């Protein structure tokens, strides 16, 4: 109702009345939509300074709102205020709580890429990896390096990711990183590089395990993959025997 009332005033040419209505609204009952509508009105009027003031009030009210931070930074970037945009992104990523941090980081990284700032982008990826080592971040970093620095630069990131997940024991994540690396090397057509990655790939063994309910009763079975990496085969040769036994059992079952 606040928004509709303000739009009515705008249609009557009463901008001051519309601003008073929306200003009273965000003071009495602040909502995301009220801020967005008020900002959009001022943006259509070309009132950048008023937009900045509104964004500041918006973010004081909802400092965890990633989309508000992104929109504010994009406004500054759209009028060529790149340093202001960076400052806003910098403030945003340092907020103690954020509703969609992955969206914010992606927007900041995409912004620097769009400006051709490769070193700034690398710094951002390193900052992000200091907070989360999710496999998607590693793969995104490697793909950026592939575009910015070439296949060799990307391989260094993939190798670093592989070593990280090896050290942390995250086998599924390590496998995903290696598969992305393999796809990248296949795209280059370099057979030697493909062989290097292939030597790191794990063997997958499909297994079954019981599924239990909250009471601990068995309610069924689920399939899962067990990954055995080359260095584990050296340390535990008995795994090969187990794998051979599994294949023999499967063959007998099929027969």
Q: Any descriptors?
A:
8% strand; 255 residues
Order of helices and strands: HHHHHHHHHHHHEEHH
Question: Low-confidence stretches at least 5 residues in length (pLDDT < 50)?
Answer: none
What order do the strands of the largest sheet run in, or round the barrel if closed?
Answer: 1-2
The coarse silhouette is: elongated
Number of strands: 2
Overall pLDDT metric: 92
Structural class label: mainly alpha
Cα gyration radius (Å): 27 Å
Helix content estimate: over 70%
How does the major sheet shape up? Answer: 2 strands, antiparallel
In angstroms, what separates the terminal alpha carbons? 73 Å
Strand content: 5-15%
How many alpha or pi helices?
A: 14
Oligomerization category of the chains in this entry = single chain
Overview of the molecule:
By secondary structure, this protein is mainly alpha-helical. It contains 14 helices and 2 strands; from the N terminus they run ααααααααααααββαα. A two-stranded antiparallel sheet has the order 1-2. β1 and β2 (218-228) form a beta hairpin. The longest helix is centred in the middle third of the chain and has 18 residues, at 151-168. The model has no long low-confidence stretch (mean pLDDT 92).
């Amino acid at each position: 109702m606040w928004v509709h009332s303000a739009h009515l005033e705008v249609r009557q040419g009463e901008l001051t009345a519309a601003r008073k209505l929306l200003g009273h609204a965000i003071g009495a009952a602040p909502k995301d939509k009220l801020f967005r509508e008020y900002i959009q009105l001022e943006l259509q009027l070309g009132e950048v300074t008023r937009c900045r003031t509104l964004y500041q009030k918006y973010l004081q009210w909802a400092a965890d709102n990633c989309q508000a931070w992104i929109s504010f930074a994009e406004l500054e970037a759209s009028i060529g205020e790149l340093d202001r945009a960076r400052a806003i992104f910098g403030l945003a990523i340092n907020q103690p709580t954020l509703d969609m941090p992955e969206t914010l980081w992606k927007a900041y990284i995409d912004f620097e890429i769009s400006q051709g700032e490769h070193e700034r982008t690398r710094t951002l990826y390193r900052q992000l990896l200091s907070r989360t080592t999710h496999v998607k971040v590693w793969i995104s970093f490697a793909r950026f390096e592939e575009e910015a620095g070439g296949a060799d630069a990307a391989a260094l990131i993939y190798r670093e990711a592989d070593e990280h997940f090896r050290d942390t024991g995250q086998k599924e994540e390590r496998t995903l990183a290696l598969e992305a690396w393999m796809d990248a090397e296949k795209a280059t057509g370099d057979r030697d590089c493909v062989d290097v990655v292939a030597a790191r790939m794990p063997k997958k063994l499909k297994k079954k395990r019981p599924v239990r309910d909250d009471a601990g009763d068995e309610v069924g079975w689920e399939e899962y993959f067990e990954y055995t990496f080359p260095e584990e085969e050296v340390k535990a040769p008995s795994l090969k025997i187990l794998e051979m036994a599994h294949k023999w059992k499967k063959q007998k079952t099929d027969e």
